[in-house]
């Protein structure tokens, strides 16, 4: 029975300069429960949890853990008292193995168990099997998929049996099957008596996994609710402060017409260094004003398709055309100049320069178009006003033009990328995982912007692992499996059962 508090936070306040991130937040976590903390991007969720693990220090308030008031000066102190956290951005060493990353920083503590490498591999393998994470403990992290890397991050926290485990949006980069597996793991941890704090903005996850949910908005606690007694709609209303309606293409009854082919993918193929086909004779076209959705489980060629179109990786066969012109051998910059926009799935490695300001990142592909750069000189006033417009329009929380982009939350980083590409009004726009890491209110806005771009005549190739997103936005749906297009369906002829079957290599 859940009744004893393992953690109590009293009147926690935190400011960053003039920005009030947390405003006298109170929170209690019961021993043995899964407690979801949710809210929009910038609501204060991650800041609150970072205080718990010693990354930030509160300006005021008390932390009471297992009945005693404590001061958490740094993450090592948090770990030593039994508080572990899985962060939404990876902290792995790519050149090391899965096992080495799992036990990184704890080798001396566990030296007697790991006197040689093989013993460490064996111990890591046992833990991987225990949590059913399907990883090779000897695999080099740089060779893992995004979803696999996330599992390593989770194992790093689980491996030492923390008394309180904090998961900061751990499903943001996982495929739907991986999400389901993670939720099962969390449920098993609860059944074994563990306490889990789960940060998310995904309402399905809130309802499936949590006992209680605390909602933050603009740095303030809005409510703590028993999950079974509230609906997703009620949770969303507390998160956003209003009723939320996700706009989709299916909401419009009038017939839509499309113009000429804008983006043409003509029988392209890509192989890796081992000669394995990553894309196999892909043939697609996207028309003016059309949204073509690509549905598939992550790892089936979507990343390679998007990056090939953007010019980030070469193709071995076929051609890519934009408005009838062959751009197969054009540079990334040339493709941008010709009217191609690109929102990558990995905003940190591909979408942003973390050590540059928000203004520099947002203007990166807009200097000339927006009139910011003339005769080799940057107009700082125009740069600032351009950035402020993007910050306001896309509601980038806690943002100022000169602030380094790395200081933003993951969701707000994503908004910087989206603002930059949408402001260009591209002829064709390749969007990969546009709402990954975004809350429900931000997703609503992004959906409306995607539809508005299509209505202006942009040809949009939408890649998403969220089937609900594909169905809501797409005029046609192309299903990809093992680097091949299984079938292209008109929206009215598609259903989740059929698409799901095709996504797993089945036939219709």
Number of helices: 17
- Report the major sheet: 6 strands, mixed
Strand content: 25-35%
Determine the CATH topology of the largest domain: Rossmann fold
C-alpha Rg (nearest Å):
23 Å
Helix content: 25-40%
The assigned CATH architecture of the largest domain is 3-Layer(aba) Sandwich
Task: State the CATH class of the largest domain.
Answer: Alpha Beta
CATH superfamily of the largest domain: P-loop containing nucleotide triphosphate hydrolases
Work out the count of structural domains: 2
| Strand segment tally | 22
Mean pLDDT across all amino acids: 86
- Quaternary status of these chains? single chain
Distance N to C terminus? 47 Å
Low-confidence stretches: 108-112
What is the overall silhouette?
Answer: globular
Question: What class would the helix/strand composition place it in?
Answer: alpha/beta
Could you give the order of strands across the largest sheet? 6-7-8-3-9-10
Any key phrases for this structure?
17 helices, six-stranded mixed beta sheet, Rossmann fold, 508 residues, 26% strand
């Amino acid at each position: 029975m859940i009744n004893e508090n393992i953690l109590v936070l009293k009147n926690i306040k935190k400011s960053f300069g003039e920005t009030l991130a947390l405003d006298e937040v109170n929170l209690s976590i019961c021993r043995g429960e899964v407690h979801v903390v949710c809210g929009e991007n910038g609501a204060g969720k991650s800041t609150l949890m970072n205080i718990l693990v010693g990354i930030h220090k509160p300006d005021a308030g008390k932390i009471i853990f297992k009945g005693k008031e404590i001061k958490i000066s740094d993450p090592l102190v948090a770990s030593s008292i039994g508080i572990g956290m899985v962060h939404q951005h990876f902290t792995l060493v790519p050149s090391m193995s899965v096992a080495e990353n799992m036990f990184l920083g704890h080798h001396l503590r566990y030296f007697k168990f790991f006197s040689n490498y093989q013993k460490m591999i064996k111990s890591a393998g046992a833990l991987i099997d225990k949590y059913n994470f399907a990883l090779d403990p000897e695999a080099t992290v740089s060779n893992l998929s995004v979803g696999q890397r996330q599992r390593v991050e989770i194992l790093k926290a689980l491996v030492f049996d923390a008394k309180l485990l904090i998961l900061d949006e751990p499903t943001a980069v996982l495929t739907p099957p991986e999400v389901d597996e993670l939720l099962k793991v969390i449920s098993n941890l609860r059944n074994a008596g563990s306490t889990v704090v789960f940060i998310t903005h995904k309402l399905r996850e809130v309802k499936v996994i949590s006992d209680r949910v605390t909602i933050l908005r603009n740095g303030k606690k809005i409510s703590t609710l028993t999950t079974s007694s509230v609906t997703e709609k009620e949770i969303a209303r507390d998160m956003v402060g209003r009723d939320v309606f996700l706009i989709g293409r299916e909401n419009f009854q009038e017939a839509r017409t499309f113009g000429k082919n804008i983006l043409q993918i003509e029988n392209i193929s890509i192989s890796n260094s081992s000669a394995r086909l990553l894309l196999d004779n892909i043939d697609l076209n996207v028309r003016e004003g059309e949204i073509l959705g690509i549905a598939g489980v992550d790892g089936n060629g979507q990343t390679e398709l998007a990056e090939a179109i953007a010019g980030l990786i070469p193709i071995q066969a076929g051609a890519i055309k934009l408005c009838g012109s062959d751009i197969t051998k054009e540079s990334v910059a040339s493709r941008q100049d010709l009217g191609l926009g690109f929102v990558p799935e990995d905003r940190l490695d591909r979408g942003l320069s973390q050590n540059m300001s928000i203004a520099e990142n947002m203007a990166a592909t807009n200097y000339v178009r927006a009139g910011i750069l003339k005769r080799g000189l940057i107009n700082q006033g125009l740069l600032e006003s351009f950035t402020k417009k993007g910050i306001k329009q896309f509601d980038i929380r806690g943002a100022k033009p000169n602030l380094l982009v790395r200081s933003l939350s993951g969701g707000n980083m994503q908004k910087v990328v989206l603002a930059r590409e949408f402001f260009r009004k591209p002829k064709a726009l390749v969007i990969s995982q546009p709402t990954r890491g975004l809350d429900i209110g931000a997703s609503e806005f992004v959906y409306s912007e995607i539809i508005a771009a299509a209505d202006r005549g942009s040809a949009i190739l939408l890649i998403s692992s969220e089937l609900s997103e594909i169905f809501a936005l797409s005029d046609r749906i192309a299903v990809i499996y093992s680097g091949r297009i299984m079938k292209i369906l008109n929206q009215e002829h598609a259903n989740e059962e059929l698409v799901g079957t095709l996504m797993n290599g089945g036939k219709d």
